[in-house]
Design a protein that fits this description.
This protein is of the alpha+beta class. The protein has twelve helices and 33 strands. It folds into four domains: about 100 residues, Lipocalin (Beta Barrel), CATH 2.40.128; about 250 residues, Rossmann fold (3-Layer(aba) Sandwich); about 70 residues, Orthogonal Bundle (alpha-amino acid ester hydrolase ( Helical cap domain)), CATH 1.10.3020.10; about 220 residues, Jelly Rolls, CATH 2.60.120.260.
Length: about 700
């Protein structure tokens, strides 16, 4: 959209009112910008961004004042031949390149409902004398107007001192508009708080009065707030995403009586079994390398950067011990555990949260994303642990089409995948805000009975009486068969036929995302969307076995846990197994989805742990073994005209470290000579029927479930 000759003229007889209206881009129409005149000044705002005042720069160009970093918003309005404003070019610090906005409405109504919050910094003493730093925000004027408000507490290792009133409104616009006393607290040993930081500090059992963990620090924090913050109603809600999600769950264990609702969102739950650091025994090398330095090498959380493709870096280092030594991180506590305790030892079990979820102490809203690149396992595992104890029906689960924390944004798209609606906005407005309003303010409007899930493919919200659903679902087997076939029909014929075979070479591992691969949170990193990357970049490799169905003649909906059950052998003494369930789009789909291969479910299993996570054992070369593990929950419709694909591979590098494929006691320190290329065989016969177990949803599933199930 260019600026016409008319755009260079002055605003004209209508003055600033000529620009007033609502604007949006073609790529993200749900993100609306409002241009309004207020007190004689032109300004622009979004629903989740504060108003920014604009000053004329000449003609139809307007700019905000520069912030402390010298950044500013610049708007250059465009007009048609009649002089009417039709759009604008919008440049801001948040945009990699200017946005082309189209004016679609001349309404001057405010778009956001930001309210001013006062700010107070406090230091709160814990039972052992350590003082923790927090920032307290409350609606301006509520200190003295008699309005008694509940607390909404966020405990975090990521720093709180820079938080402002605008940050409160941006992060939780619906809750901020309603009015809460927001408390953002640094946990011990992080940023401005005293004490020693311990990664995922385990809950202390049989503790004395001076023993501390995150449950005691939460209780002591709440005690202090109730005694020292005036005009509050004595109720506390606790919320957090990721590590703060782990801390939110801690508030529900030995809960303070004032805690009336918690929402662990993408919580770190069991970092060995299925969250940040290991998945089924396979070590998440790049994430462990970056995140441990970020949290344990400093009191702040400065990100790790890399000037080279991390694929090349970790390949050159050989093993994790080499990489850790090169970074000088071998003495960091969690790195030590990586190097010396790679199996599921007491150290890792004590950190796991699900062992302590033996009762429901407070109403709990678990939230997770189907494409969460960090903690997809956690919310479903916590829900599964709590739900059997839920006599009062106070445990809830929301699963959506999101990456890690993606429900905090509009949620209308992820990478190249569009969902047709702002799923994040819908969740926050219809579920999260009403949840806290009900339990902290006794307000009506929260109607979730158990589980809400956004069914991708069909792109619609569904509600279930339990997760995974128990009614309307039929378990079916999807078999891996020779000649790259994938079929719901059981194999026949020879009893020892192979479905596929390939050579897995640790010297040339399969990359987990497009290269170059940046540091996890480094500059320009594609980490946050790698799970929705088009898998065609690896499908043609000789060390990836791909199986496909014919084109579907009707929709197939998979709702619930997908399980891989492989019968396979290797010429080595160990090996990794990666299985991916993929939705293959038709070649005539609208760009960029033509032929796209979208992962729907995926997971890894380290072969040495096929029988026990505590007692690994070598694989006998040439022996056919059964490898069975969960690919976790999905809710997805494979549409008519699409195809189902299953891929099997033996590396996913460098997110997961390379398996030497010969037996070594500790892969973290495996010598270079241990890494050997081996031949992998996958069987697809009546005797060895490799398959995926898929929960297929019938027409009566989802929101059409029976009244009895509700």
């Amino acid at each position: 959209m260019g600026v016409t000759l008319a755009a260079a003229q002055a605003p004209g007889e209508h003055g600033l009112d000529a620009y007033v209206g609502r604007y949006r881009t073609a790529d993200a129409p749900e993100l609306v910008h409002a241009v309004r005149v207020e007190n004689g000044r032109l300004g622009i705002e979004e629903e989740r961004s504060p108003r920014v005042e604009l000053t004329a720069q000449g003609g139809d160009r307007y700019a905000s004042a520069k912030d402390r970093q010298g950044l500013q918003v610049v708007l250059t309005f465009a007009r048609d031949g009649s002089g009417r404003v039709t759009g604008a070019t919008y440049a801001s610090p948040d945009s990699a390149e200017p946005l082309q906005l189209t004016r679609f409405d001349e309404s001057a109504a405010p778009l956001n409902h930001f309210r001013a919050y006062s700010r107070q910094v406090v230091m709160m003493p814990m039972r052992d004398g350590v003082k923790l730093h927090a920032v307290v925000f409350r609606p301006a004027g509520s200190e003295t107007n008699g309005e008694k408000l509940p607390f909404l507490l966020v405990r975090t290792p990521y720093g709180t001192d820079g938080y402002t009133s605008d940050d409160v409104n941006r992060a939780k616009p619906e809750l901020a508009a309603s009015g809460y006393i927001f408390v953002f607290a640094d946990i011990r040993g992080r940023y401005e708080s005293e004490g020693q930081f311990v990664m995922n500090r385990p809950v202390v059992t049989h503790r004395s009065n001076k023993d501390v963990d995150e449950t005691t620090d939460t209780r002591d924090t709440i005690d202090w707030l109730l005694k020292n913050v005036p005009n509050q109603n004595g109720r506390v809600g606790v919320v957090g995403v990721s590590y703060p999600g782990f801390l939110a769950m801690m508030a529900g264990i030995d809960a303070h009586p004032a805690v009336k609702a918690i929402s662990p969102q993408a919580p770190m739950t069991d970092v060995w079994m299925g969250d940040d650091f290991f998945h089924n025994g396979a070590f998440r090398e790049t994430y462990g390398f970056d995140y441990v330095q970020q949290l344990e090498a400093q009191k702040t959380d400065a990100r790790v950067e890399s000037n080279e493709d991390t694929y090349d870096f970790f390949l050159r280092q050989g093993n994790f011990a080499g990489a850790a030594t090169s970074a000088g991180m071998t003495n960091l506590p969690t790195a030590k555990a990586f190097l010396t305790q790679p199996t599921y030892t007491k150290f890792w079990k004590d950190m796991a949260v699900q062992r302590d979820l033996t009762k429901v102490e407070v109403p709990t809203l678990e939230v997770g994303g189907y494409w969460d690149q960090e903690d997809m396992w956690g919310p479903q595992a916590e829900y599964a642990a709590l739900e059997p104890h839920d006599a009062k029906h106070e445990v809830f689960l929301v699963l959506g089409p999101w990456n890690h924390g993606g429900w905090g944004g509009s949620g209308a798209r992820l990478g190249a995948v569009e969902f047709g609606q702002p799923t994040g906005d819908e969740y926050r407005k219809s579920i999260e805000a009403p949840f806290f309003e009900k339990y902290l303010k006794d307000r009506a409007g929260y109607d979730l009975q158990n589980t809400a899930s956004f069914r991708t493919g069909a792109d619609q919200w569904e509600r279930y009486a339990a997760w995974p659903p128990k009614v309307g679902v039929e378990a079916k087997r999807l078999y891996l068969q020779p000649e790259k076939r994938l079929s719901f029909a059981a194999p026949t014929g020879d009893y020892d036929v192979k479905a596929a075979a390939y050579v897995a070479d640790p010297a040339n591992p399969v990359p987990y995302r497009h290269r170059p691969i940046q540091a996890t949170y480094g500059t320009g990193s594609k980490w946050r969307t790698w799970l929705v990357e088009d898998q065609r970049f690896v499908t043609g490799r000789k060390d990836v076995a791909a199986f496909e169905t014919p084109v579907l003649d009707s929709d197939v909906t998979v709702t619930g846990d997908v399980v891989a059950d492989l019968f396979a052998s290797t010429t080595g003494e160990d090996g990794d197994w990666v299985v991916k369930l993929i939705d293959v789009y038709p070649e005539d789909a609208t760009a960029p989805m033509a032929g796209y291969q979208l992962m729907i479910a995926d997971e890894i299993l380290r072969g040495r742990y096929r029988k026990s996570f505590e007692q690994p054992e070598a694989v006998k070369p040439g022996e056919v073994n059964e490898y069975r593990w969960s690919l976790h929950g999905v809710d997805h419709t494979f549409l008519k005209g699409h195809r189902l694909m299953v891929e099997v591979q033996s590396s996913w590098f460098p997110l997961y470290d390379r398996n030497p494929q010969t037996w070594v006691p500790n892969i973290m320190t495996a010598p270079a000579g241990a890494y050997k290329a081996e031949t992998v065989s996958i069987f697809g016969s009546p005797k060895y029927p490799s398959h995926l177990e898929l929960p297929i949803m019938g027409e009566a599933g989802g929101s059409q479930q029976t009244a009895a199930e509700r």
